[in-house]
Amino acid sequence: MTAPAHVLVVGAAASGLTTVEALRRKGYGGAITVLGDEPHPPYDRPPLSKQVLSGTWEPARTELRTGEYLAGLQAEFHLGDPATALDVPTRTVRTQSGRELRADAVVIATGVRARTLPGQELLAGVHVLRTLDDSLALRADLLAATRLVVVGEGVLGCEIAATARTLGLDVTLAGPLAAPMALQVGPLVSEALAALHTERGVRLRMGAGVAGLTGAGGRVTGVRLATGEVLPADVVVVAIGAVPATDWLADSGLELDNGVVCDARCRAAAGIYAVGDVARWHHEHLGRLLRLENRTNATEQAMAVAATLLGEEQAYLPVPYFWTDQYDAKLQVHGFLPVDSQVDVVEGDVTARRFVARYHHGGRVTGVLGWNMPKQTRLRRQEVVDALRSTPAPIP
Amino acid sequence: MKVVVDEEKCVAAGQCVAAAMDVFDQREEDGIVVVLDEHPPPELADEVRNAAAVCPALAIRIEE
């Protein structure tokens, strides 16, 4: 396979930029064009719910690379110009401003959009957090507010609750699960997280679905739970997950099903690939499609696709990794943590908030989780790698 | 080649250690990156560049 003469990357965040960097690092000398929907130079998202929201970082610190470095990549960046359509047979992308870009290979890296509650756009004081502008707008509102309700007890909702509490707000965290991040980490750790948030003064309203928002004069006044209870709020953050940004591909003919469906090499069609949050590819060790919304995958998948574009074809077989920082708790996860896993604490002590837990499912190790023990957790990653490689089988 | 790390940006993922274990380690207490060899030999250059590339916090800079 010869390298494509022109690569078009649609998306200018971590996965898009990494694709470009990896191509250049491997010596690719062809033309590269990058389309970004936001006007900002490529920036990093994990700090948006933590350092940027708390104000400990200036927004510019999230920039992934300096202007000088970006210029050195010899790529043409068109920022603030979202893609609106893709013609698959000719690999031509149309943009909002009317550009028509044709390439030999197209890499889709458009990420995800925050899911919203019906009617929330009609009320001031209701936020989502996905972009840098989202984070700055939320911060401005929080600085003028007293009571925050966070809808959604996933990783993002928990981080926002912790940051806002640190800023001194009265914070309520609401969601349908039994405890924070119960879907991501299972009962043992989510109960420890519930204790942590409660101790820090966050009011938890767990096990309660959200029915809607209340407002007056065009501004939000609270969150109505399915039980009828209303949680009063000056500001509300809706953190109920994200949907792949594939609207622009609706008429492309690509298979779209909770993301851009790809083969084991992250290929959606001839000359068309997907990377990062938007990509749902066939993970051969799991034997099923997988889509990951985490920072490490954005990098690793982009590097894998860059290699594939240059003829070093290999199946993409990552061991997923994510982390979350809440107050002084640093949680790190390698692998998979099915909710009905058997969980053993293999180092440290849960009550001391310093431990490593190993997750077993279907008779094998599927993942490890560390709480304030990053190095010790990483040292056990190999157990997950070995188990996944030796007995390929679906993990729920 | 010189390796420079930003401890404040480091998120203690340990991806760098997995990529280049002769050059990077993590502190026992909090997992923050430790550089074992600030001037790695040429034969480790690819590993080190890879370590910088996989860092999820872009906390590793390489001066060639």
UniProtKB/TrEMBL annotation, chain A:
Task: Cite the InterPro entries for this sequence.
Answer: FAD-oxidoreductase/Apoptosis, FAD/NAD-bd_sf, FAD/NAD-binding_dom, FAD/NAD-linked_Rdtase_dimer_sf, Reductase_C
Q: Which UniProt keywords apply?
A: FAD, Flavoprotein, Oxidoreductase
Q: Where is the Reductase C-terminal domain?
A: 321-382
Q: Which Gene3D superfamilies match?
A: 3.30.390.30, FAD/NAD(P)-binding domain
Highest taxon in the source lineage: Bacteria
Keyword Protein biosynthesis annotated: no
Query: One Pfam family, short name please?
Result: Reductase_C
Instruction: Give the matching SUPFAM superfamilies.
Output: FAD/NAD(P)-binding domain, FAD/NAD-linked reductases, dimerisation (C-terminal) domain
Describe the location of the FAD/NAD(P)-binding domain by residue ranges: 6-302
- Which cofactor(s) are needed, names only? FAD
Name of the protein described by the UniProt record: NADPH-dependent 2,4-dienoyl-CoA reductase/sulfur reductase-like enzyme
UniProtKB/TrEMBL annotation, chain B:
| Key word Magnesium present | no
Q: Name one Pfam family in it.
A: Fer4_13
State the source organism's domain of life.
Bacteria
**Keywords for this protein:** 3Fe-4S, Electron transport, Iron, Iron-sulfur, Metal-binding, Transport
Q: Which SUPFAM superfamilies match?
A: 4Fe-4S ferredoxins
Which Gene3D superfamilies does the protein's record reference? Answer: 3.30.70.20
Required co-factors: [3Fe-4S] cluster
**Does RNA-binding appear among the keywords?**
no
Its annotated function is as follows: Ferredoxins are iron-sulfur proteins that transfer electrons in a wide variety of metabolic reactions.
PANTHER family to which the protein is assigned, alphabetical:
FERREDOXIN
Name it.
Ferredoxin
